[in-house]
Amino acid sequence: xxxxxxxxxxxxxxxxxxxxxxxxxxxxxxxxxxxxxxxxxxxxxxxxxxxxxxxxxxxxxxxxxxxxxxxxxxxxxxxxxxxxxxxxxxxxxxxxxxxxxxxxxxxxxxxxxxxxxxxxxxxxxxxxxxxxxxxxxxxxxxxxxxxxxxxxxxxxxxxxxxxxxxxxxxxxxxxxxxxxxxxxxxxxxxxxxxxxxxxxxxxxxxxxxxxxxxxxxxxxxxxxxxxxxxxxxxxxxxxxxxxxxxxxxxxxxxxxxxxxxxxxxxxxxxxxxxxxxxxxxxxxxxxxxxxxxxxxxxxxxxxxxxxxxxxxxxxxxxxxxxxxxxxxxxxxxxxxxxxx
Amino acid sequence: xxxxxxxxxxxxxxxxxxxxxxxxxxxxxxxxxxxxxxxxxxxxxxxxxxxxxxxxxxxxxxxxxxxxxxxxxxxxxxxxxxxxxxxxxxxxxxxxxxxxxxxxxxxxxxxxxxxxxxxxxxxxxxxxxxxxxxxxxxxxxxxxxxxxxxxxxxxxxxxxxxxxxxxxxxxxxxxxxxxxxxxxxxxxxxxxxxxxxxxxxxxxxxxxxxxxxxxxxxxxxxxxxxxxxxxxxxxxxxxxxxxxxxxxxxxxxxxxxxxxxxxxxxxxxxxxxxxxxxxxxxxxxxxxxxxxxxxxxxxxxxxxxxxxxxxxxxxxxxxxxxxxxxxxxxxxxxxxxxxx
DNA sequence: ACTGAAAATACAAACGTTTTTTGTTTCATT
DNA sequence: AATGAAACAAAAAACGTTTGTATTTTCAGT
Lengths: 340, 340
Known about the structure:
Two copies of one chain form a homodimer. Chain A folds into three domains: 5-47, no CATH class; 58-161 and 294-323, Rossmann fold (3-Layer(aba) Sandwich), CATH 3.40.50; 162-292, Response regulator (Rossmann fold). In chain A, 44% of the residues lie in helices and 16% in strands. Chain A has helices at 5-12, 16-23, 30-43, 49-56, 72-87, 101-113, 132-136, 162-175, 191-206, 223-235, 248-260, 278-281, 294-310; strands at residues 61-66, 91-96, 118-121, 141-144, 156-160, 181-185, 216-218, 242-245, 270-274, 288-291, 319-322, 325-327. Chain A has a six-stranded parallel beta sheet with strand order 2-1-3-4-5-11, sandwiched between helices. Chain A has a six-stranded mixed beta sheet with strand order 7-6-8-9-10-12, with helices on both faces. In chain A, helix 12 links the parallel strand 9 and strand 10. In chain A, helix 10 packs across helix 11 (248-260). The model of chain A has no long low-confidence stretch (mean pLDDT 91). At the A-B interface, helix 4, helix 5, strand 2, helix 6 and helix 11 of A face helix 4, helix 5, strand 2, helix 6 and helix 11 of B. Chain A binds a DNA duplex through residues 4-6, 13-18, 20-21, 24, 26-29, 32, 47-57.
C-alpha cells in the first residue's frame, strides 16, 4: 500500500542513499530535489518511522507513567511536556496506573518492550522497584514531582522545593500570631507528604511552637480526605486557628467542610491552600495559597529529558528544583489585630 | 546491549523460528521451554516491539488526537480507553492540539509517520480535512463525541444522542410551565453545538413555543463564555425563567454569574446543566443536569477500535450512540405552583 | 524394531530504513 | 584543459523480528 524508499528510487531514478540523505537534511542537487519532491507527492510517500527506529536503534518515543490522568495538576504538566517533546519529534506514550504500584510496574515493562528512549515517572511506588528494569536497560529515567530515595544519584528529577513551600506558608501563619495550626497532608509515606511535613515542623520550631500530634492529619490527597480531615480538626477541644492544606483536591474538600459547618474564612479560621487551578479559582477566589509552576515543571522535564537523550555521557544526573509562590488572598487574618 | 533472539538462539542452541514460535504462543518441547525460560532470565531478553512492528506491518499503537488534555471530560474518556487498549497490548500516543486546527493536522501527520494502526479523534476542525491523509492511508479512523459531516460513511464513531439529551432537558422545563428558556451553546459550527440546538428547537416546537433569538447564546464551551452568556441573558428586558447550559465549564460559569448577581436557583431562575464531574458535584450539589457516560464512551471507543483493527473487511463503519441521563437535582422549579 | 504422521525445528528471505564502500559524474575554479 | 570537491550511483550489510518451506525428530501403533 504505502510507498517506500524503493518506490521513490524507482520513480526518480535516484539511489537509496541519496534519498535517505535528502530526508535526513543532507543536500542534493536542485533538479533532484525537485524530482524527489514531485515523487513524494505523487506516491504519497511518508517515511516509515518504525523501520527508521529499528535501524537507528532509537524509537523517538518517551514513556510517561503517572498515577492518574484525570487530574488537572498532572495533565497540565504533561501537556506542556508533550508540546516540547513533539516539537523535537518525540512521541509520548502516557500510561495511567491509577495510583496502583502493580499497574505501574506493568506500565514500565510495557514501555520497555516498546523500546522507549526515556522514561518520565511520577512515582506511585515509593520504593522505586518498578524502575529497576529501566535503569538496567540503561535508558534515562526522569522523576517528576516525587523523588525516590532508593534511586538517589541514579536518576534525574524535576521537583518543587516542598520544604520551603510549606515553611513559607506556615511561617506566614505564625508571623500573624497563629500558634495552633492544623496541617492536612497527603498519604503517609509519599515523598511530598514527608517533605511538606518537614517544612511545617521547621516553621513551628522557628516560631518556638512545639508540634501537636492532633493537628497533623492525613487526607490522601483526595477531596474527601481533605473534607474528613478538616471535620476531625474541627471536633478537637482546642481547635486550630489556622489550616494549611497541602494539595488542591484536599483544599477544595477543606473549604467545603468549612462551608458546611458555617465557619467563616478568615474570621473564624485562617486557611492557606495549595495549587490554584483555573476553574476553581473563581469559586473560592480569595484563597491564600501556594502555587506550583506546572507549566515550568513540564517544560523543565521535557528539556532535561532531551538533554539526557543527547548527551550519552552516562551518569550526570541533575535534580532541578523549582520554587513555588505564595499567592496572597484574603483567607488569612492576623491574630494580633481584633476583628472589626 | 540488549539481548536479541539471536543471542537466545546461541544460548539455547535452538533456531530462531522455534524461539519466535514460543514467544507467540506456540508449543515447544518441555525441555526447550525450560531452556528458553532460563536463557530469557539470564540474558534479560525482552522482545523488540520495533522489529516486530516492522515485520508484521502493524505498530500496535493507536493515535489519539484531542482538543485539550487539561479537561476532565476528555481525560476520563481517554483513561478508560487507554486501559482497555493497553490490556490488548496497544499503546496509545495522545496528541493535544489545543483546539487548534493546524496543530491537529500536524498531529495526524505525526501519527501517520509513526505508522499508528488506528486513529481516534475528537475533532477540532469540523471540516475533517485533517483526516484525509489517514483515510487515504487506509487506517481506521474513529470519531469520538463529534461527528464530521463530510466524513459520513467513511469513519466509525462513538457519540451521545445530543438531540435527545437536549430535548429531554428542555422538555423537562416546558413541562413545568417554562416558556422563556435561555440556551447556552458552545462554539458555532461544532457538531455538538448544532445538535444540542436542534434538540432545544424540537422541544420548543413540541410545546408550541416559537424560539426567541435573544435567548440563544454561544459561550465557546468555556467557563468565561458561560459567565458572559448568562450575564447577557440576565440583561434582557424579558428575562428567561429557565436556563439550559450545554457543557460543564459553561455550567460552572453560569452558576458563578448567578451567584454574583444574587439570583437564587431555582426560586428566581431554573437551571439545567451538563456533565456532572466528581469534584464540582460537591460545590453545586443540587443541580439538575444531563450526564454523559464518559466511562462508557471510552470503553465503546476502545472496543470499536479493536473491532475495526481485527476485521479487515474494510468498510463496515458503525456509529455507536450512547444515551445520556437526566439527573434530577433541585435547581428546577415548577411555574405551575406558587412559591411557598 | 519399523512405519507413518504429526510435531518440532532449521534455514533463509523479508520488512523499510540507514550507512558504508567503491567508484562515477558534475561543475565551478584555476 | 586540468584540478578538485561535492554530489551521486550501485550494491550490500545491518537492525531484530516473522514466516514459508524444507527437513528432522518424536512417538504411538503395529
